[in-house]
């Protein structure tokens, strides 16, 4: 079994030199960014998908993806 990966705010939008960032919060403080498909510590609820039967789904985006894709929190 491999070691758990440390969450990033949004790795694919990183600038060179961002490797010196401080340590991230514990994994329990993370959400899944549905835009860059990775864990994030800056996730906010964007929308809730309602379904006729069964549970709905909450869709989250990190700060960088909200800015990049011009997403507004719910």
Question: In a few lines, what is going on in this structure?
Answer:
The protein is mainly β and 74 residues long. It has one helix at residues 63-68, and strands at residues 31-33, 38-40, 44-49, 57-61. The chain is globular.
Q: How would you sum up this structure, described in words?
A:
- The protein has 74 residues and is mainly beta.
- It has one helix and four strands.
- The chain has one helix at 63-68, and strands at residues 31-33, 38-40, 44-49, 57-61.
- It has a two-stranded antiparallel ribbon. A two-stranded antiparallel ribbon has the order 3-4.
- The longest helix has 6 residues, at 63-68.
- The model is unreliable at 15-26 (pLDDT under 50).
- Helicity range of the residues? under 10%
Give the class from helix and strand content and strand pairing. mainly beta
Shape field: globular
Biggest sheet: strands side by side, in what order?
A: 1-2
- What's the β-strand tally? 4
N-C termini distance: 37 Å
> What is the succession of H and E elements?
EEEEH
Q: Give the integer mean of the pLDDT values.
A: 78
Determine the number of helices (DSSP H or I, runs of at least 4 residues): 1
- Calculate Rg over CA atoms: 14 Å
Residue ranges: pLDDT <50 for 5 or more in a row? 15-26
Largest beta-sheet characterization:
2 strands, antiparallel
**What is the beta-strand fraction?**
15-25%
């Amino acid at each position: 079994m491999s070691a758990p990966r440390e969450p990033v705010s949004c790795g694919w939008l990183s600038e060179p030199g961002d490797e010196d960032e401080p340590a991230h919060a514990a994994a329990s403080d993370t959400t899944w960014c549905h835009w860059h498909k990775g864990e994030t510590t800056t996730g906010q609820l964007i929308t809730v998908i309602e379904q006729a039967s069964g549970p709905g789904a909450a869709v989250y985006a990190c700060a960088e993806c909200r800015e990049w894709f011009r997403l507004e929190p719910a």
